[in-house]
Amino acid sequence: MHIILGALGLIVTILILLNRLSEVGIDIGWLDPFKWNRRRKWRQAYYTNPVFDIDDPMKSTAGLMYTMAKCSGDISREEKACILSIFKEVFKLSDTEATELLSNCSFYIKDENQIKDNLEKFIKPSINNFADEQKKSAYALIEKVAFCEGNPNEKQKEFLAQIKNIFTPRKETFKKW
């Protein structure tokens, strides 16, 4: 019994001391594990690049098309016109919506190497939302952008190969039991 009373007295003493510290102005909120976890999740969400959170197949395809055009250096007038026509014809967007989507892509994708080097991370949130037909169509659209100004350069060929690896289903070999 005396051990239980000693433990209860210790707990009460600690609580009183923590209360006095908070009254004086010393913040002890960092001790709360639930608050720490919320802050940690918020910090991770805040500091991640918004490009890697795109879950809409149309927007991710638009980003890949923009990245493909950017692989050849600065985007030329022909590439820009090609991308805008794809947005209008295939995605069925109006002129202003197509222009907004292209400007959003240019705002979010400042460096094409960021997407090229982290392609799986970029496509991961949206890959499950793609239907099989959309995957084939997206690859065809990206390929159309690559061939917009003639034959693609080496960086564009590399990027096309990476996209093809992601969009084509992997054939798994099944063993008989």
Automatic annotation (TrEMBL):
| Top-rank taxon, per record | Bacteria
Identify the SUPFAM superfamilies for this entry: TerB-like
Bilayer-crossing residues are none
First and last residue of the signal peptide = none
A Pfam entry, by short name: TerB
Describe the location of the Co-chaperone DjlA N-terminal domain by residue ranges.
61-174
Give the protein's recorded name: TerB family tellurite resistance protein
Organism whose genome encodes this protein: Desulfonema ishimotonii
The organism's taxonomy opens as: Bacteria, Pseudomonadati, Thermodesulfobacteriota, Desulfobacteria, Desulfobacterales
